[in-house]
């Protein structure tokens, strides 16, 4: 499954944190055959009014049940119930781990990302729950570095090349990812930071000056907030962009975030402040988040945001 397919799947999934299984079995000697027969009889009575076609359907269904009888007789309902109970308990544990991941990942300076395998999310969630005060940053940094190794970075680079809207940016994106694998993080980080803003503005087909305020509005439109919890983490990713990447800075002052776009691209941050593997991974994750979210934009969504931006632009002019 590609990263974009994974994101589309996550977009349609809502994590239910209050799973209350109701696994009921019917007591009979045939392992459930009686229940199936009752259902089939009800179906048959309901569709008999449709004449010959209905009769043919009913006969087909009855034949199907007869064919299934050996399977139904073979099923051990109690074992099936135990299996489903185990699945539900596993989902509960996954829910808790992912909720802990959700809390931990931003606290530790990383953006959440659907490109991260669920097993790694669970590992980070468990580490957060068990080692909150014991070298947690170092532990998570090691987890992320192990996962986003040279092979994984190469895989992500190839996935980026599948998106047509990145075609003219690919030479820089390729070289930036290659530089990461060579340990040249002082090149990777500013190179990728310089492209994120352009990818987002181009996604909304804007050919005009975009103020800082307007760009923040674009971020909020690209990563909408909403009620409830989603594996896609749009709310968290949008807030991460605004509060970590777009954090303000002052020349001569210590930078507030090691991924500050303004500090790095305006020269306020020196390589010693940011040129590290874990920081490069953070930027790569954010670029991936942006690419995947842009790929999901529809023409209708782009048109709606463009219409809203015209109003924002007028207001911005009057406020100058």
Can I get a quick summary?
By secondary structure, the chain is mainly α.
What does this protein structure show overall?
The two termini are 48 Å apart. Helices cover 68% and strands 0% of the residues. The chain has 320 residues and is mostly helical. The protein has helices spanning 3-12, 33-47, 51-74, 77-107, 118-130, 136-147, 150-160, 170-181, 185-203, 212-222, 234-245, 261-265, 271-274, 277-295, 299-319. It is built from 15 helices and no strands. It is globular, with a radius of gyration of 26 Å. It folds into three domains: 33-75; 91-147, no CATH class; 149-319. Residues 1-31 are annotated as: Disordered.
Q: Give the domain tally.
A: 3
Low-confidence stretches: 14-33, 82-88, 314-320
Question: How far is it from the N-terminal to the C-terminal residue, by CA?
Answer: 48 Å
Major β-sheet annotation: none
Number of strands: 0
Mean of all residue-level pLDDT scores? 76
The number of helical runs is 15
| SS-derived structural category | mainly alpha
The global form is globular
- Rg over CA atoms, rounded to whole Å, is 26 Å
Order of helix and strand elements from N to C terminus: HHHHHHHHHHHHHHH
- Percent strand equals under 5%
Helical amount: 55-70%
Region (Disordered): 1-31
């Amino acid at each position: 499954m590609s990263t974009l397919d994974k994101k589309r799947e996550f977009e349609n999934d809502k994590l239910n944190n209050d799973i209350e299984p109701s696994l009921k079995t019917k007591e009979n000697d045939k392992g459930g055959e009686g229940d199936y027969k009752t259902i089939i009889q009800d179906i048959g009575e309901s569709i008999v009014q449709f004449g010959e076609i209905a009769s043919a359907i009913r006969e087909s269904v009855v034949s199907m049940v007869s064919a299934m009888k050996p399977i139904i007789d073979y099923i051990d309902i109690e074992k099936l119930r135990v299996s489903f109970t185990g699945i539900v308990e596993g989902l509960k544990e996954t829910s808790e781990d992912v909720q802990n991941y959700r809390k931990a990942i931003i606290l530790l300076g990383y953006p959440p990302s659907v490109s991260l395998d669920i097993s790694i999310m669970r590992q980070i969630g468990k580490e957060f729950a068990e080692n909150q005060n014991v070298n947690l940053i170092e532990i998570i940094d090691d987890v992320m570095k192990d996962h986003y190794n040279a092979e994984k970075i190469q895989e992500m680079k190839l996935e980026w090349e599948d998106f047509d809207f990145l075609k003219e940016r690919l030479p820089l994106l390729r070289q930036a990812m290659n530089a990461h694998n060579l340990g040249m993080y002082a090149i990777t980080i500013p190179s990728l930071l310089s492209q994120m803003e352009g990818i987002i503005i181009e996604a909304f087909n804007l050919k005009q000056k975009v103020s800082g305020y307007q760009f923040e509005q674009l971020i909020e439109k690209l990563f909408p907030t909403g009620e409830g919890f989603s594996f896609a983490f749009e709310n968290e990713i949008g807030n991460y962009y605004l509060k970590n990447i777009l954090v303000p800075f002052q020349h001569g002052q210590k930078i507030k975030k090691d991924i500050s776009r303004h500090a790095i691209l305006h020269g306020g941050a020196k390589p010693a402040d940011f040129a590290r593997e874990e920081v490069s991974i953070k930027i790569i994750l954010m670029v991936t988040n942006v690419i995947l979210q842009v790929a999901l934009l529809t023409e209708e969504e782009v048109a709606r945001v463009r219409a809203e931006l015209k109003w924002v632009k007028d207001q911005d002019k009057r406020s100058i």
